[in-house]
Specification:
This protein has 150 residues and is mostly helical. It has helices at 2-27, 70-76, 84-87, 93-106, 115-126, 138-141, and strands at residues 36-37, 49-50, 54-55, 58-59, 64-65. The strands form 2 sheets. A 3-stranded antiparallel β-sheet has the order 3-4-5, with no helix packed on it. A two-stranded antiparallel ribbon has the order 1-2. The radius of gyration is 27 Å and the shape is elongated. Bound molecules: heme C. Heme C binds at residues 76-77, 79-81, 85-86, 89, 99-100, 103, 107-109, 119, 123. Heme C binds next to helix 3, helix 4 and helix 5.
């Protein structure tokens, strides 16, 4: 009888410990659980980021929108300046392409290879000029400008 009680106590203790380890495993910091988040299926895109960094469709560390081909942007576009300059810029496809070429010519931006197309596609989709339907800039419509006198 006495031995049975000991065994039961031991079992209860082990049960508690198991429960504890399960609780610890589930409440661990999300960063420790390395869930890699990737929005592209493309094998060549080797800059995955952590699921814990994504909130409401935004990659929190950079503020950039999570969408296809964000990976090559993270890998190539943050070495010289922050993502702020990207987030504050709105350009169409041609605009983004020539901005990249300007950085390559004047700022030592490296050849992006096949990633250039992906980066431009991401930027054109997510950081395009303001949606249509808004009135055009009034300054462009004015025809009553006058010359300042010297
Ligand atoms: C080798 C360094 C370097 C890299 C890498 C780089 N840039 Fe730049 N970028 C610059 C410099 C320098 C400027 C000019 C900053 C200034 O005028 O103060 C700039 C400016 C910009 C601007 C602001 C343009 C404006 O209107 O003033 C944007 C947007 C931009 N870069 C986007 C990108 C994107 C997208 C990538 C990735 C393809 C990238 N950059 C990678 C060097 C770089």
């Amino acid at each position: 009888m006495r031995e049975d009680k000991h065994t039961r106590n031991l079992m209860v203790l082990m049960g508690i410990m198991t429960l504890l380890s399960v609780v610890i495993a589930f409440t661990a910091e999300p960063e420790e659980v390395a869930i890699v988040y990737s929005v592209s299926n493309d094998e060549e895109e080797k800059e995955p980021f952590y699921a814990a960094d994504v909130k409401d469709g935004i990659h929190v560390p950079t503020g950039l929108k999570v969408d296809t081909h964000l990976e090559p942007v993270l890998a190539n576009c943050l070495a010289c300046h922050s993502a702020d300059v990207i987030r504050n810029t709105r350009l169409d496809k041609q605009g983004w392409t020539s901005l990249i070429h300007w950085m390559q010519e004047k700022q030592n931006l490296w050849d992006l290879g096949a990633d250039e197309k992906r980066i431009v596609a991401y930027l054109t989709k997510n950081y395009a000029p303001e949606a249509q339907g808004r009135r055009a800039n009034l300054a462009l419509q004015r025809d009553d400008w006058y010359e300042l006198e010297d």
